[in-house]
Amino acid sequence: MAADSRILAVENLTVTFGGVHALNDVSFTLSARRIAAVIGPNGAGKSTLFNCITGVQRPTRGTVTCGGRSLLGQRPHQIARQGIARTFQNLALLPESTVEENVLLGRYQHTRTGMLAGMLRGPRARREEREQREYVGGILEDCGLAPLRYEEVRSLPYGVRKKVELARALVQDPKLLLLDEPMAGMDSREKAELSDLVLRYVDDHDVNVLMVEHDMNVIMGLAEEIVVLDFGRKIAHGTPGEVRNDPLVIEAYLGAEFQSTEEDAPEHELAQSTQQTRQAGE
Ligand SMILES: Nc1ncnc2c1ncn2[C@@H]1O[C@H](COP(=O)(O)OP(=O)(O)OP(=O)(O)O)[C@@H](O)[C@H]1O
Questions:
Q1: Ligand 1 atom nearest 50 alpha carbon
Q2: Which residue in 133, 139, 146, 188 has a CA-CA distance of 20 to 30 Å to 44?
Q3: Where is region (Disordered) located (predicted)?
């Protein structure tokens, strides 16, 4: 085992904007479990947490380490190179480029030939470009996007664009994948498809996922571990069963709807379908 195998450790993380504590002394460690979630009401600090992990936001105080290595002071592209990939709450795609072109952008840190060689299109650059397109083709296939490879992103429905953004994160071959509201704006069929895709990907790759998502059916079906934020503070961290029965979480966010009597028994259609997929893969 490596000296520090913890995939992500957040310690005393604090971010202050003027008088507002977007994050207030938040600490947690993700380790063995593969899919984790951060939940909480609007303004709880979820996006700020993602911004700190990806180097977009410098914390006022505290540390973030991945695999034992501090991420503080690193630029977003340096953090991406360490295997941390992210999707955004609001799509960050190039609408006038094709699906393939958008997803290829995710491969840039895996290319060896530089920009100049690429522009001059020497044989090495051409070979590398072919390899990258093949790699991207495989992920597009996995994501069900292969038939749309040469379509411009702006012509696609919102749910499909969310998938394109996920594909762009997956081609980075990340060890930590941060998904910021990946299911927002999707219908229940699209959510079930995307949940299955995430589960399959996690089963087939050495990757940990941390997601922010408001749909509790999705969270309860996918996450093995949940961190709950409220007004910038961590109010709970545990399994779905623990979190949904936590009085603080019920009061701040969930209400009584997700309370359960039977640990880890999914009550919802999507949770059942994703759990079945997971069991089938075991
Ligand atoms: N750049 C900023 N400047 C000032 N305040 C900010 C900034 N970014 C976030 N905040 C504030 O910090 C708090 C946490 O915001 P954040 O976006 O992290 O919450 P969130 O949990 O992601 O919310 P949502 O679920 O609505 O996306 C909020 O009060 C927000 O208004």
A1: 18
A2: 188
A3: 260-282
